Amino acid sequence: MTKYEQDTLLIHNGFKYDAGTGAVSVPIYNSSTFHQVDVDSFGKYDYSRSGNPTREVLEETIALLEGGVRGFAFASGMAAISTAFLLLSQGDHVVITEDVYGGTFRVVTEVLTRYGISHTFVDMTDIAQVEAAIQPNTKVIYMETPSNPLLKITDIRAICELAKKAGALTFVDNTFLTPLSQKPLELGADIVLHSATKFLAGHSDVMAGLAVVKDEELAKRFYFLQNAFGAILSPHDSWLVLRGLKTLHVRLQHSVAAAEKIAEYLQTHPKVKRVYYPGLADHPGRDIQFAQATDGGAVLSFELENEEALRQFLAHVKLPVFAVSLGAVESILSYPAKMSHAAMGQEEREKRGISASLLRLSAGLENPNDLIRDIDQALAAVETSAVSL
Ligand SMILES: Cc1ncc(COP(=O)(O)O)c(C=O)c1O
């Protein structure tokens, strides 16, 4: 089979046209069940929880993009992540990055613990800390890189090597970069997870989750869990993600360039205390980032002097929507302390450096000069008295 570049694969994935009708857009098979012609041998599809032709095209496409053997589509990123954790059993242990997405934190700390699955949070940028946290019953090492919301970079190759020695599986949440920028399976990971709600779908109009596994044995176990637990993506939502994927390359190219420009601008502004963006020259994880990914991504975080300055900034900024989420056509400004990481609790957040004056910006498709002008006027409106409080 001809090996295509990523952008070509987004358009020419497994589906070219529908064999029955010639439709170039994947048909939405809104059928829960499928007629069987023979009592002894059922067709490929029997019931849509177990398999649906529209969802299957999405599952094949994400597997192709991530370089895995099989993909699975879920009703949300959390459904994909939770199903992956169902590979674990009572008595198992998870080593997990400390600034993980708040929803994942909630599942690990408040759900898995009820089933006798324990965890240790570590700073994944510190390999020695990860090594020290591994126990004889450690079955999964869970990474999210760049991390959310502090954009810390984990060395995926190094952690995967440690995990292999320990006999543990490695899960990587690849939501922030997508397979176009980073391919965890090629770096040694076992399972890649996505909130497809973000860049993959890209238009703030669908909730979806995806998982891709690296080998047939895991594929069998994962399929069993997807079918058993049943948190599958609907045919219509599968189609929306497929449509979003077709433009992923051009959307990302624009948004990454915008994020770079905005990060550089923010870094020079006197009212901005700190900028977190792995594409910046002085980011501590920059070398690892560019050894395992093609760019710094389209998400950055920045800290203002204090909460009052943040409130004044938010009262004046006009272009980005102020909302939960990221990875959309419109720029999204989020307040991690009260949005993505609200489930973490103040004490845990502060331990991790997620302060009350931290904002996260996901660059959209607006002209970056307009975004910078807007941010600039909002920063100008922050009173100096707020800054020096
Ligand atoms: C990095 C990351 N992983 C997982 C999720 C959860 O995905 P969903 O909201 O689609 O359930 C999110 C959501 O914000 C996220 O940012």
Explain briefly what this protein structure is.
The chain has helices spanning 6-11, 53-66, 77-85, 102-111, 127-133, 156-166, 178-181, 216-229, 235-246, 248-267, 286-292, 307-316, 346-352, 368-380, 384-387; strands at residues 70-74, 93-97, 118-122, 138-144, 169-173, 191-195, 209-213, 272-276, 299-304, 321-322, 332-334, 358-362.
Write a structural description.
- The protein has 389 residues and is of the alpha/beta class.
- 38% of the residues lie in helices and 15% in strands.
- It contains 15 helices and twelve strands.
- The chain has helices spanning 6-11, 53-66, 77-85, 102-111, 127-133, 156-166, 178-181, 216-229, 235-246, 248-267, 286-292, 307-316, 346-352, 368-380, 384-387, and strands spanning 70-74, 93-97, 118-122, 138-144, 169-173, 191-195, 209-213, 272-276, 299-304, 321-322, 332-334, 358-362.
- The strands form two sheets. It has a seven-stranded mixed beta sheet with strand order 1-7-6-5-4-2-3, with helices on both faces.
- Helix 12 (307-316) crosses helix 14 (368-380).
- The longest helix is centred in the middle third of the chain and has 20 residues, at 248-267.
- The protein is globular.
- Bound molecules: pyridoxal-5'-phosphate (PLP).
Q: What's the mean pLDDT score?
A: 95
Compute the number of helices. 15
- Main beta sheet strand tally, sense and closure: 7 strands, mixed
Q: What form results from the Cα inertia axes?
A: globular
Helicity range = 25-40%
Provide the structure class.
Answer: alpha/beta
* Oligomeric state of shown chains: single chain
What portion of residues belong to β-strands?
5-15%
Radius of gyration: 21 Å
